[in-house]
């Protein structure tokens, strides 16, 4: 079964310095029909104004992925990490037993546009951890490139969760197919452009929730960037 989650139906938040769209219930947006999918709990599409950001705040027992689309995100945390996350990098922070961090856009004239993704871990109370890797666009061109996984395979960042995340870029005749375990759940989030997934057309910000499917085929992209999640049931 494949269910469409249209972009326009996501939760909306406008704080002036931050404009956010919530795929699942988050903060002041609550929809009991959209509390998560499998162990995927949060996908927030955030646009942070120049010179603004999230001050120091805490998390625990959550796997948090930042995926920057444009601009840069400055990260600082209680583990001593001071990092800049540009487009093309994937960052994973394991909150574990507790971590505080801040995220800012230090640019004077550019919005930082990024996805904040939370996945529920399969272990709790672990020491907090941080990992960041650059994934070249050439490895995502016309393919689904593994960027996060439970075992760090294919030079992906390592999640303390029963989940895997793939990223792909598709345009024109480029296409890819991936087998799915029908006992698990999958989730497709189109970051930008347009794409057909198992023959169904979607546009930027749209998502598909897959349950009981045995494969996924991506084709007929138009400047498409997509994330595909393999998730615990």
Name the helix and strand elements from N-terminus to C-terminus, one letter apiece. EEEEEEEEEEEEEEEEEEEE
Q: How many beta strands in the DSSP annotation?
A: 20
Number of helices: 0
What characteristic shape results from the CA principal axes?
A: globular
- Summed over residues and divided by their number, the pLDDT gives a mean of 97
* Terminal residue distance: 14 Å
* Radius of gyration of CA atoms, rounded to a whole number: 17 Å
Helicity level, as a percent range?
under 10%
Q: Can you tell me about this structure?
A:
With 233 residues, the chain is mainly β. 0% of the residues lie in helices and 56% in strands. Strands 1, 13, 14, 15, 16, 17, 18, 19 and 20 form a nine-stranded mixed sheet that branches. Strands 2-3-4-11-6-9-12 form a seven-stranded antiparallel sheet, with no helix packed on it. Strands 5-10-7-8 form a four-stranded antiparallel sheet, with no helix packed on it.
């Amino acid at each position: 079964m494949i269910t469409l989650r249209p972009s326009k139906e996501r939760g909306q938040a406008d704080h002036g310095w931050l404009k956010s769209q919530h795929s699942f219930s988050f903060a002041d947006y609550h929809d009991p029909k959209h509390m998560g999918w499998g162990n995927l709990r949060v996908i927030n599409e955030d646009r942070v104004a120049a010179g603004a950001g999230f001050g120091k705040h805490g998390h625990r027992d959550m796997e948090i992925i930042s995926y920057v689309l444009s601009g840069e995100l400055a990260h600082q945390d209680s583990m001593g990490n001071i990092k800049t996350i540009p487009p093309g990098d994937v960052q994973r922070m394991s909150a574990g037993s507790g971590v505080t961090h801040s995220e800012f856009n230090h640019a004077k004239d550019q919005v930082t546009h990024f996805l904040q993704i939370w996945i529920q871990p399969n272990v709790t109370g672990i020491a907090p951890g941080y990992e960041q890797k650059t994934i070249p666009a050439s490895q995502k061109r016309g393919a689904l490139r593994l960027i996060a996984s439970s075992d760090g395979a294919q030079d992906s960042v390592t999640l303390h969760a029963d989940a895997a995340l793939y990223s792909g870029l598709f345009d024109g005749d480029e296409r890819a197919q991936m087998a799915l375990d029908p006992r698990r759940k999958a989730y497709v989030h189109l970051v930008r452009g347009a794409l057909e997934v198992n023959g169904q057309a979607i546009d930027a910000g749209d998502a598909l929730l897959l349950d009981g499917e045995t494969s996924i085929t991506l084709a007929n992209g138009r400047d498409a960037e997509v994330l595909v999640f393999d998730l615990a049931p």
